[in-house]
Amino acid sequence: MAAEARDRLSGIPYLDLIPGRWLHLTMQGIGFADEVSDGDLEAITAAAAARLAIVAPVTITLGPPEVAGEGVTSWASPPRDLDQVRDAVRAGIADVWGDGRVPESPDWTAHVSVAYANADGPGAPIDAAVEGMGAAETTVRAVDLIRLGRDSHLYEWETVASLPLGG
């Protein structure tokens, strides 16, 4: 689905298309790399891994792509099915830092972006490009803990740990 969306959206100058290897569903941040000690990162990784080990893999549907916020997004459906996965990660952070230090709001909307806007532009060409596109089904089997950067108009990262879901 994302590859088809990129093909259809290519040529729209105010969009940065996200290559396949950088597609992601952002779930929960921990903090800036220079603000999280190695010891805390190891402890959070272990706590989150233990909690995720009892959460079953989750099958979701993504899409179809649509204009949203700062780009083109495919919303996850059913919309609340990944909450248990995110809640386990947040609980792992709280195990180490306490409830009051878990970053980010507990409210979220699961999605995968396929393009980011790099300037203001009309939505109509995007709507026309993705019209009639279908959705894609995927199963979330792990949560990757990453070191994130955004230096070239898209998010790039290195995986620090991959935490499998068990259940």
Largest sheet: 6 strands, antiparallel
Q: Count the strands? A: 8
Q: What separation lies between the terminal Cα atoms? A: 28 Å
Oligomer: single chain
Q: How many helical stretches?
A: 4
Query: How much of the residues is beta strand, in percent?
Result: 25-35%
Structural class: alpha+beta
Question: Spans of 5+ residues with little confidence (pLDDT < 50)?
Answer: none
Average pLDDT rating: 93
Percent helix, as a range, is: 25-40%
One letter per element, helices H and strands E, the order comes to HEHEEEHEHEEE
| Rg of Cα set | 17 Å
Specify the overall morphology: globular
Compact summary:
The protein is an alpha+beta fold and 167 residues long.
Description:
It is a single chain. The chain is α+β, with helices and mostly antiparallel strands and 167 residues long. Helix content is 27%, strand content 28%. The protein has 4 helices and 8 strands; from the N terminus they run αβαβββαβαβββ. It has helices spanning 2-9, 38-52, 83-97, 124-130, and strands at residues 15-17, 58-62, 66-68, 71-77, 111-117, 136-140, 142-149, 156-164. The strands form 2 sheets. Strands 1, 2, 3, 4, 5 and 6 form a 6-stranded antiparallel beta sheet that branches. A two-stranded antiparallel ribbon has the order 7-8. A hairpin with a 6-residue loop joins strand 7 and strand 8 (156-164). The longest helix is centred in the first third of the chain and has 15 residues, at 38-52. It is globular, with a radius of gyration of 17 Å. The two termini are 28 Å apart. The mean pLDDT is 93.
